[in-house]
Automatic annotation (TrEMBL):
Keywords on record: Isomerase, Pyridoxal phosphate
Keyword Methyltransferase: no
Active site location: 33, 253
Biological processes, Gene Ontology terms: D-alanine biosynthetic process
EC number: 5.1.1.1
UniProt-recorded name of the protein: Alanine racemase
Cofactor(s) required, per the database record: pyridoxal 5'-phosphate
PROSITE patterns tied to this protein: ALANINE_RACEMASE (PS00395)
Segments forming domain Alanine racemase C-terminal: 232-355
Ligand binding (substrate): 129, 301
Protein's job: Catalyzes the interconversion of L-alanine and D-alanine. May also act on other amino acids.
Family assignment from sequence similarity: Belongs to the alanine racemase family.
Length: 357
């Protein structure tokens, strides 16, 4: 059997969820969209269900998968419905629904629903992606409140730059939000992972941690609360071939690496078809037999090469961690000029093995 696999530590997932609650004192929706950022939405939801206040996903397809697996907890659709004909399913399965645009508000008012739904009314407080304009916000709230199709309403917005700890944009966004909310007394929800970890004074009855649940920091710099996160995923494989090369020999496609001296090279069963970033350059850290080493040359579809020159104890069959508790996914992301979010979401083909449940 091919040795590439992703080990998922569900105990670490629960630890990180509890950290989000502990540092905010708020209720927390565990964001498990995009198959729980590559970690497996159903298994992650099952591991968290006993303690989670609810879950959040990107669309009804993701939410239905959770209900089909027996998840009974509240599930918020972060972009609401894409077409009004999803509304009966939203009612049937008790999904909570973001309203980010006036057309969604119109559709809710015009629908004939068997039961009123739970709405999270989204404000565009400055990110300028989705959300109602501040001038329309209070009137939209009042229309929802007046509609027989609406039960509870939560007020929400989303930060564009909360991962930049010395940037004042998040403070401005909070001010816009509080201004638009004015005298409305509903619960509020503003904070994603970087705001949970790095912006302790931002008010929130509900927080919406995603990335931090998986144990990865959204910040480029070390940060005190983020240092308490536990990585959930370990992507690992094994050395399937070892070769000794003299100086001056090319390694891999395009000869992007030429041995500067005699070297010992390990070939690892892991490639970009597994989601390991092809953009990761020579020097990207890997962990082999208890030692940090480095990637050499181009990442292939199914294999990549690492440096074993200074790891004499490692050889055929040695376990290699591509990221996990020793090599942080954020380190690999930085080397590959991307973000841990994308590193996790790209995971494919490798079997996921769960522990800690
Ligand atoms: C994805 C998402 C989150 C979670 O963001 P993280 O940075 O992963 O914590 C929170 N809120 C909304 C609206 C989202 O789309």
């Amino acid at each position: 059997m091919r040795p590439a696999r992703a080990l998922i530590d569900l105990q670490a997932l629960r630890h990180n969820y509890q950290l989000a609650r502990e540092v905010t004192g708020a209720k927390a929706l565990a964001v498990i969209k995009a198959d729980a950022y590559g970690h497996g939405a159903v298994r992650c939801a099952q591991a968290l269900e006993a303690e989670a206040d609810g879950f959040a996903v990107a669309c009804i397809e993701e939410a239905l998968e959770l209900r089909a697996a027996g998840i009974r907890a509240p599930i918020l659709l972060l972009e609401g419905f894409f077409e009004a004909d999803e509304l009966p399913l939203i009612v049937e399965h008790d999904f909570w629904c973001v309203v980010h645009s006036l057309w969604q508000l119109d559709a809710i008012e015009q629908a004939r629903l068997a039961k009123p739904i739970h709405v999270w009314l989204k404000l565009d407080s400055g990110m300028h992606r989705v959300g109602l304009h501040p001038n329309d916000y209070k009137a939209a709230y009042q229309r929802l409140q007046a509609s027989a199709n609406v039960a509870k309403i939560v007020l929400m917005s989303h930060f564009a730059r909360a991962d930049e700890l010395d940037c004042t944009r998040s403070v401005e966004q909070v001010a816009v939000f509080l201004g638009a909310r004015a005298d409305l007394t509903a619960e509020i929800s503003l904070r994603n992972s970087p705001a949970v970890l790095g912006w302790p004074r931002v008010p929130s009855d509900w927080v919406r941690p995603g990335l931090m649940l998986y144990g990865s920091s959204p910040f480029d710099e070390p940060q005190a609360t983020a240092s308490r996160l536990q990585p959930v995923m370990t992507l690992e494989s094994k050395v399937i071939c070892v070769r000794e090369l003299p100086a001056g020999e090319p390694v891999g496609y395009g000869a992007r690496f030429i041995t500067p001296k005699p070297m010992r090279i390990g070939v690892v069963a892991m490639g970009y078809a597994d989601g390991y970033p092809r953009q990761a350059p020579t020097g990207t850290p890997v962990f082999v037999d208890g030692v940090r080493s480095q990637l050499l040359g181009r990442v292939s579809m199914d294999m990549l090469c690492i440096d074993l020159t200074d790891v004499p104890q490692a050889g055929l069959g040695s376990t290699v961690e591509l990221w996990g508790k020793n090599i942080l996914a954020s380190e690999v992301a930085t080397a590959a000029d991307t973000i841990p979010y994308q590193i996790f979401c790209n995971l494919k083909r490798v079997p996921r093995l769960y522990s800690g449940n």
